[in-house]
C-alpha cells in the first residue's frame, strides 16, 4: 500500500508543476536595473533618460519599458558560420564545419539559443526578434553542408533532402552541446567529427543511384486529374524551387521535377522542355517589374545617378526574392553554354539583367553625368553581375546594402563628377 506523500514531497511537486507553467517573460521582469546599469558603465540618470516614466505608477516607462524593449530586440548574437574558402577534399574536411559549429555552440551560443527559445515560446516580440538569427544559422549551415555534398560530387540520398540533412545535423550538434553543458568535457571534438562524418558518408550518394526517373508504373498511376489542376505550371515552378534549394541546379533532373510536381515527364516536357525554361517562367514576371519601376523613374525625371541606384536595388530585390532560381540561372549561363548554347539564347532573350540599366546609363551620359570610358553595355554588365554575385554570396545583406557596396566600388569609374 502506497504511503501518503509527505508535505515536503507535495511542496516539491507543486514547485515542479509551477516551473513547467512559468511564463519566461517573468524572468526578464526580475532583472535588476542596477545590475543592467552597472554592466554598461553608464549612470542611472542616463537609464531613466532613455526610458522615461515610472512603471510603478501605472505608466509605461522605466523598468517595464526597458523589459519590453529588451524582449522585442532579443538577440542570440550569432556571428555567422565560417564557410571554408577551399573546397573540401577528405571526409574529415567535409565534416569540419560541423566541428566548428559545435565549438561555437559550446562557447556560449548554445546557452543563448536555449534562452532565446524559452522567451520566444512565451513572447511574440521575442519570437519575431530571434527568428531571423535562427534561420540565418540554419541557412549558413545548409550552405556548408551543400558544399560538402558538391565536394563529393554526389547527391543526398532519398528520402532525405539537403534541408532535412542539415536540420538533422544541426539538431545533433544542439543535443551534443546541451549534453556538454550538463557535463562539461563529456563530448570530445573528435566524437563530433566522427558522428558528422558517419552521417555524411551514409547520406551522400556519390553515384546518384537514386536520382533516376520514376518507374513507368508510377507514372501510369498518375491520374488525368493531376494535369487539370488550376495552375499546373505554378506547381511545377514551386516544386523546382524546392528541389534547387535542396539539391542544387545540376543535381536536379526533369524526372525529379516531374515526380515532385506529380506530373508525367512527357507532360512536363510539353510545358517546359528544359530546366532553363522553368527558370525563365519563374523569373520573367519579377524581372518585368524592374523595367516597370525604371520606366516610372524615367517619366518622373529622376536624376540618372539616383535612378541607377534605385534600379540596382530592384535588381537586388529580384535576386534575393528568387535566390534558388537566380542561382540556377547563373549556373546555367556559366556551365551549360558549351553543351547547350540555346540556354544562353533563352536566358538572354528573357532575363538579360544588364538591359535593366542600359537606358539609365545612356540617359546619364547624354546629361554629362556618366563617363564614356567603356561601352554602355560593358558598364551595365559589370554593375548587374556584381549585384547578382553579391546577393547570392552575401545572404545577410539587404538589396540596398548590396547596391551601395557595388556602387561604392564601381561608381567612381562611372560618374564624371562626385555626387
TrEMBL record:
Limits of the HTH tetR-type domain: 230-290
Keywords: DNA-binding
Ranges annotated as DNA-binding: 253-272
SUPFAM superfamilies, sorted: Homeodomain-like
InterPro entries listed in its UniProt record: Homeodomain-like_sf, HTH_TetR
Gene3D superfamilies for this protein: Tetracycline Repressor, domain 2
Name of the protein in its database record: HTH tetR-type domain-containing protein
Organism the protein comes from: Rhodococcoides yunnanense
Amino acid at each position: 500500500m502506497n504511503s501518503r506523500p509527505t508535505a515536503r514531497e507535495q511542496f516539491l511537486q507543486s514547485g515542479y508543476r509551477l516551473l513547467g507553467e512559468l511564463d519566461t517573460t517573468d524572468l526578464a521582469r526580475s532583472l535588476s536595473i542596477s545590475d543592467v546599469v552597472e554592466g554598461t558603465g553608464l549612470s542611472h540618470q542616463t537609464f531613466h533618460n532613455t526610458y522615461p516614466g515610472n512603471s510603478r505608477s501605472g505608466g509605461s516607462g522605466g523598468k517595464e519599458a526597458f523589459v519590453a524593449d529588451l524582449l522585442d530586440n532579443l538577440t542570440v548574437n550569432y556571428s555567422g558560420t565560417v564557410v571554408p574558402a577551399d573546397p573540401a577534399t577528405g571526409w574529415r574536411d567535409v565534416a569540419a564545419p560541423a566541428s566548428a559549429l559545435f565549438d561555437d555552440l559550446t562557447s556560449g551560443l548554445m546557452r543563448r539559443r536555449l534562452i532565446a527559445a524559452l522567451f520566444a515560446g512565451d513572447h511574440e516580440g521575442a519570437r519575431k526578434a530571434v527568428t531571423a538569427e535562427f534561420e540565418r544559422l540554419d541557412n549558413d549551415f545548409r550552405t556548408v553542408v551543400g558544399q560538402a555534398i558538391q565536394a563529393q560530387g554526389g547527391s543526398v540520398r532519398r528520402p532525405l533532402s539537403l534541408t532535412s540533412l542539415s536540420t538533422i545535423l544541426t539538431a545533433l550538434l544542439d543535443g551534443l552541446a546541451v549534453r556538454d553543458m550538463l557535463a562539461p568535457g563529456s563530448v570530445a571534438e573528435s566524437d563530433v567529427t566522427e558522428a558528422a562524418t558517419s552521417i555524411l558518408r551514409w547520406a551522400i550518394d556519390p553515384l546518384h543511384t537514386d536520382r533516376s526517373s520514376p518507374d513507368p508504373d508510377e507514372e501510369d498511376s498518375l491520374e488525368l486529374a493531376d494535369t487539370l489542376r488550376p495552375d499546373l505550371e505554378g506547381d511545377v515552378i514551386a516544386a523546382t524551387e524546392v528541389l534547387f534549394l535542396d539539391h542544387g541546379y545540376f543535381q536536379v533532373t526533369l524526372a525529379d521535377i516531374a515526380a515532385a510536381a506529380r506530373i508525367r515527364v512527357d507532360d512536363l516536357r510539353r510545358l517546359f522542355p528544359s530546366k532553363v525554361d522553368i527558370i525563365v517562367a519563374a523569373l520573367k514576371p519579377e524581372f518585368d517589374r524592374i523595367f516597370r519601376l525604371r520606366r516610372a523613374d524615367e517619366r518622373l525625371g529622376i536624376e540618372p545617378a539616383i535612378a541607377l541606384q534605385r534600379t540596382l536595388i530592384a535588381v537586388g530585390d529580384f535576386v534575393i526574392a528568387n535566390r534558388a532560381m537566380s542561382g540556377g540561372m547563373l549556373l546555367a549561363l556559366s556551365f551549360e553554354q558549351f553543351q547547350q548554347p540555346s540556354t544562353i539564347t533563352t536566358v538572354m532573350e528573357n532575363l538579360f539583367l544588364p538591359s535593366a540599366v542600359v537606358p539609365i546609363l545612356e540617359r546619364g551620359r547624354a546629361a554629362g553625368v556618366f563617363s564614356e570610358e567603356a561601352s554602355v553595355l560593358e558598364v551595365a554588365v559589370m554593375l548587374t553581375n556584381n549585384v547578382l554575385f553579391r546577393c547570392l554570396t552575401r545572404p545577410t545583406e539587404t538589396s540596398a546594402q548590396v547596391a551601395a557596396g557595388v556602387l561604392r566600388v564601381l561608381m567612381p569609374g562611372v560618374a564624371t563628377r562626385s555626387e
